[in-house]
Amino acid sequence: MTEMMKAVRLHEFGGPEVLRYEEAPRPVVGTGEVLVRVHAASLNPPDLYLRDGYRALPPEWRPSLDFPLILGTDISGVVAAIGANVPDFSIGDEVFSMVRFPHDLMIGSNAYAEYVKVPVSDLAIKPAGIDHIRAAGAPMSLLTAWQFLVEPGHDAPNPFQDFDHAPIALEGKTVLVNGAGGGVGHLAVQVAKWKGAHVIAVASGKHETVVRDLGADAFIDYTRQAAETIAQDVDLVIDAVGGSGMQRFLSVIRKNGALYLVNPIGFSGHEEATRRGITVSTAQVRSNGAQLSEAGRLLDDGTIRVVIDSEYPLSDASAAHQRASGGGIQGKIVLVAR
User: Fold this and answer.
1) What gap in Å lies between CA 54 and CA 62, rounded to an integer?
2) How many helices (H) and strands (E) does the chain have?
3) What is the rounded average pLDDT of the residues 142-159?
4) How many CB atoms neighbour CB 98 within 10 A?
5) Which domains does the chain have, with CATH numbers?
6) Pairing of strands 253-261, 279-281
7) Model confidence at 107, in pLDDT bands (50, 70, 90)?
8) Are 249 and 227 in contact (CB under 8 A)?
9) How far apart are CA 138 and CA 121, in angstroms?
10) For the Enoyl reductase (ER) domain, which residue ranges apply (predicted)?
11) Residues 6+ apart with CB under 8 A from 123
12) Is 199:216 a contact under the CB 8 Å cutoff?
């Protein structure tokens, strides 16, 4: 008999209201996999895009999927079962992970559930110094900041450009983080600071106290002043917002500096960047248990902190998605399964 669990499933594309909390088959681990009993899972932008059917993409790029789907990639929980060829984990271990991303980008990685199976290469021991809620909030956002600013951690082809992303050395450099109050942004501020940079944070004024507490040296409230009219001679801008107008930051970057785009779709400033001698680069974040383990040491000792915007029970995932769609998020939104 198939064992069952509770999960949040998608039977059609649409708004937050299409998410259903219901019975679903419990996954069975295979070789090189671990079954995790989920204590918490966090929301990320790809969850919203998939729920909506990737309507922002050109029609020919949209996936043709078989329903039902289970959304989500980021989890923290406890190992409940282990498949063959898994030497480094034991039942009862507390772990966290970004699950099978971007491999399951278009179909969901099944994190909004009581149980999820995780490839051992995606898994890391949860830092003892933080709880499951903060651990669940870390993986995608922290790995994005890490792979942009510290080490890509893989040699997979870059889907966005014909050259590999190569982080610049940050010691003594000036780094501007646009979207510093959000999931990726508040972690990018801390990673850049840890690497020795002088950090300018750009966000709405309500985030200033938190972002300065996380280590930002300067703060620009974009609702009062345009960042590109204030900042100057910046070595690196990392834009964690996306959308139109990303090229406006080229004017604040010094020659031989760089602009990193977390979401490059819509950027139209490549010719200007070449003229100014600025490198524009982006990357696709990828699951990496070894990097999570390395970054986890900084979570463990408090060097890097995960800010939680809000918590919702797994059964109320639709409300969590409604909150995510409302904007103005400070840090991460987390679903609590236990």
Assistant:
1) 6
2) 8, 16
3) 95
4) 31
5) 4-139+288-336 (3.90.180.10), 157-281 (3.40.50.720)
6) parallel
7) confident
8) yes
9) 17
10) 14-335
11) 34, 36, 89, 95, 96, 97, 289, 292
12) yes
Do the Cβ atoms of 142 and 262 come closer than 8 Å? no
283: left (phi over 0), alpha (psi -120 to 50) or beta: beta
| Residues composing the chain | 338
Task: Please give the share of the chain, as a percent, with pLDDT higher than 90.
Answer: 90
Q: Which residues lie below 8 Å from residue 57, measured CB to CB, with a gap of 6+?
A: none
H helix or E strand, kind and range, residue 192 = helix 183-194
- Pairwise CA distance, residues 118 & 144, whole Å: 19
In this structure, are residues 170 and 131 in contact, taking their beta carbons and an 8 Å threshold? no
Q: Which amino acid is located at 76 in the chain? A: S
Higher pLDDT: 96 or 61? It is 96
DSSP assignment of 46-105 equals: HHHHHHTTSTTS-GGGS---PSPEE---EEEEEEEEE-SS--S--TT-EEEEE-STTTTT
End-to-end CA gap in the chain: 25
Cβ atoms of 295 and 147 closer than 8 Å: no
Q: What is the mean pLDDT of the segment spanning 171-194?
A: 98
Interatomic CA distance for residues 145 and 192, integer angstroms: 9
Is 156:286 a contact under the CB 8 Å cutoff?
A: yes
- What global pTM score does this model have? 0.97
Judge contact between 219 and 211, C-beta under 8 A: yes
Using DSSP bridges, classify how beta strands 115-119 and 33-42 pair: parallel, antiparallel or unpaired.
antiparallel
- For residue 294, the SS3 value is helix
Percent of the chain with pLDDT over 70: 100
d(CA 78, CA 200): 38
Sign of CA pseudo-dihedral 320, 42, 28, 69:
positive
Closest alpha carbon to 90 in 102, 81, 100: 81
Q: What is the pLDDT of residue 321?
A: 98
> Residue 50 and residue 41: Cα distance in Å, rounded?
16
